[in-house]
Design a protein that fits this description.
There is one protein chain. The protein has two helices and twelve strands. By secondary structure, it is mainly β. β8 and β9 form a beta hairpin.
Length: about 190
């Protein structure tokens, strides 16, 4: 029997024989096309049943055994850089590491947990991202253990990955051994107009 159409979910104007549609949820839908014939009359084609099922849930991600990441500092103005030179960089608060996420075409987002131990008892930080990297703000140099879960577009979570060792390394700052004042020279005063 012919289904009763209670409401239209998607309407799309197309000029060819193919199109792509994203359905908002799982379930049974009916697709039908309408066209205008040569006399200007609207003609509906016979409805086609479409069953939308979710893809399989995401699998447990696989991480590298060890990640080594250097702390980065946000770029700032020349004035801010001079200020950072005078203030210990650990007080600046603009430090981060970018942690790469495992590739997964079904990922809507990622859940990240970093622990101080490999047993997952002492959580240091956790976060989420929908990008292919996650910025960990103001990390301390040292060794931690990271695990990641994938969240798909149906909001299903994969099991967390096995722990991966994450080594956060300090960026080497070039130390200045001697500072010399170039101006004013030998006690002379600089006079400006």
């Amino acid at each position: 029997s012919m289904p009763k159409f209670e409401k239209t979910l998607i309407t799309k104007k197309v000029s060819g024989a193919n199109t792509k549609i994203s359905f908002p949820k799982v379930g049974t839908f009916y697709w039908r096309a309408k066209k205008v014939d040569s006399n200007g009359n609207i003609v509906f084609q016979k409805p086609v049943k479409v069953i939308i099922k979710p893809t399989p849930p995401p699998k447990k991600p696989v991480l590298e055994k060890e990640m080594r990441l250097k702390i980065k500092e946000r770029s700032s103005s020349l004035y801010e850089k001079m200020l950072e030179f005078l203030v210990a960089s650990s007080l600046a608060g603009d430090r981060y590491v970018e942690i790469p996420m495992p590739e997964n075409e079904d990922a809507k987002s990622y859940l990240i947990e970093i622990y101080s131990d490999s047993d997952g008892k002492n959580l240091i930080v956790k976060g989420t991202t929908s990008e292919n990297t996650w910025k960990w703000e103001n990390p301390k140099p040292g060794v931690g253990h990271i695990r990641i879960s994938v969240v798909d577009f149906w909001d299903r979570k994969s099991p967390f990955s096995d722990f991966s060792k994450i080594v956060i390394e300090e960026t080497q700052v070039k130390k200045v051994s001697k500072v010399s004042l170039l101006s004013p020279y030998n006690g002379f005063k600089t006079v400006g107009k």
